[in-house]
Amino acid sequence: MKLFKSQKGYTLLFAVLTASLVLGVAAFTVGVARKQHILISTARDSIFSFYNADSAISCIVASWNNATNTSPGSNNPTSPSASVSCNGGSLSTDNFFESISSDDWPTVNAFKPNSVVYRSTNNSISFDSNGGCAKFEIWVGYDSDDKQKSIIEARGYNVCDSSGEPSASSRTVERAIRITQ
């Protein structure tokens, strides 16, 4: 009888240790799953943003080429005559460009120093399929060989408000694409 009394509580101790181990493994698994969910969501949002920027670039180049039968770089920036239409909206290039100083040029050295450069800014395109949008800028100027060049930059966003502007949400992701012609 004394032998049984000395082992009293062993089953309870073993049950508590086993429950603690199982709870620890479960907490670790939930933590890993949560982090994976955050990474997957961020990757998805990044892909939406990139594709919105890519769609804006494609739409702008195709619309401009269809309107003028030329590339954006071959238009005369002082009197552009193309109409850029995309996703049901339209941007006329009458008063589309503004003359800018060399301080406002794109960070790439694509344009000739001290030449006149024209740009259009604050243009946006909304995409209904995923609630995203893109903002784009177009620069037209001359390179060092006096050939006209165009730079089109689109910034895609995964979350936008009803006016087509990027949302102030912490979930908003921006991805940019720049092409030079």
Overview of the structural elements:
- There is one protein chain.
- The protein is an alpha+beta fold.
- It has one domain (32-180).
- Helix content is 35%, strand content 27%.
- The chain has two helices and seven strands, in the order H-H-E-E-E-E-E-E-E.
- It has helices spanning 2-6, 10-68, and strands at residues 83-86, 89-92, 98-100, 117-126, 133-142, 148-157, 174-180.
- Strands 3-4-5-6-7 form a five-stranded antiparallel beta sheet. Strands 1-2 form a two-stranded antiparallel ribbon.
- A hairpin with a 5-residue loop joins strand 5 (133-142) and strand 6 (148-157).
- The model is unreliable at 69-81 (pLDDT under 50).
Quick structural overview:
With 181 residues, the chain is of the alpha+beta class. The protein has one domain (32-180).
